[in-house]
Specification:
Blueprint: E1 9-15, H1 23-33, E2 38-44, H2 50-59, E3 64-67, H3 72-78, E4 81-82, H4 84-89, E5 94-97, E6 103-106, H5 109-120, E7 131-134, H6 138-150, E8 155-159, H7 162-172, E9 175-178, E10 191-194, E11 218-221, H8 230-237, E12 241-243, H9 246-261, H10 269-277
Length: about 280
């Protein structure tokens, strides 16, 4: 572990709760790897205290902070300016303290999602066919924005609450569909992405007939606990290409670490092993 001095650069992750976050392990790995005089710490902040905590970042000399559940939308309203992705998605997962003390809200989730696909499924092309996104929450917003920007010809947003899917489609683009139409979206899909909690440890599995998908389809799950969800296992059993969710976490952290500590780190197998072991 790197030693700390009076010049240590400090960043962290704000959430409630935040004890489960893998981000301190992730950023800590890179700090050690690059021998940076820095620290990245968990910052448990209750929702009612969040505005005070955000405004305190600059006063405390923080380089910035990542933001996780339930604060991403609140962070959007509290910062002084936004990058393009945050503006489109309407949520902030990275707050950077600028040299003048102003706060810039960024969203690196969309970048992390696409970088993960490109790295782990290099043959996948966004323009190869329609994308089906399951869910309409904050993660879905980042995924839909990423896919449309990458050139997907159509993004179908399938959600239990059709109203939520319609609101997302209005904001970002795409086509909203009710959950009972899921099967009809699959036969020509180039990509299926699960952004819901279905399949996560402690939640029911996602029931989706992968047999309806073309052999060329890519199946992705942003859940990484477990790493191989039932959806991914079913897809693999049929011989479909799959991408698990841990990579999105790793890749979204890359631009945040660079903003906080001035070095663009590498996403490596050793990093993934350290984060999964943590």
């Amino acid at each position: 572990m790197s030693s700390h001095t009076g010049k240590t650069r400090v960043a962290g992750v704000m959430g409630w709760p935040v004890g489960h976050s893998r981000s301190p392990i992730l950023h800590g790995f890179w700090l050690d790897e690059h021998q940076i005089d820095g620290a990245y710490i968990p910052l448990p902040v209750e929702p009612e205290d969040f505005p005070t905590a955000v405004r305190g970042l600059a006063a405390l000399g923080f380089a910035g902070a990542n933001v996780t559940v339930p604060h991403k939308e609140s962070a959007f309203a509290l910062v002084d300016q936004h990058d393009e992705a945050a503006t489109k998605i309407g949520a902030v997962n990275t707050i950077v303290v600028l040299p003048d003390g102003r706060l810039e809200g960024r969203n690196t989730d969309a970048y992390g999602f696409i970088a993960n696909l490109q790295h782990n499924a290099p043959l996948w092309r966004a323009d190869a066919g329609p994308a089906v996104v399951l869910g309409a929450g904050g993660a879905a917003r980042a995924v839909v924005h990423a896919l449309l920007k990458a050139g997907a010809p159509e993004v179908r947003i399938v959600n239990r609450s059709l109203e939520k899917a319609e609101a997302l489609a209005r904001d970002l683009g795409g086509k909203a569909l009710p959950w009972d139409k899921l099967a009809s979206t699959l036969p020509d899909a180039g990509l299926v992405v699960n952004t819901t909690s279905l399949g996560m440890n402690g939640y029911p599995p996602l029931e989706l007939d992968v047999g309806l998908l073309p052999r060329t389809a890519l199946v992705s799950d942003i859940v990484y606990s477990p790493l191989v969800t039932k959806l991914l296992a079913d897809a693999q059993a049929r011989g479909l290409a799959t991408v698990d969710g841990i990579g999105m976490l790793l890749w979204q952290a890359q631009p945040a670490f660079e903003a906080f500590f001035g070095v663009r780190p590498t996403v490596s197998p050793a990093l993934q092993a350290a984060v999964l072991a943590g």
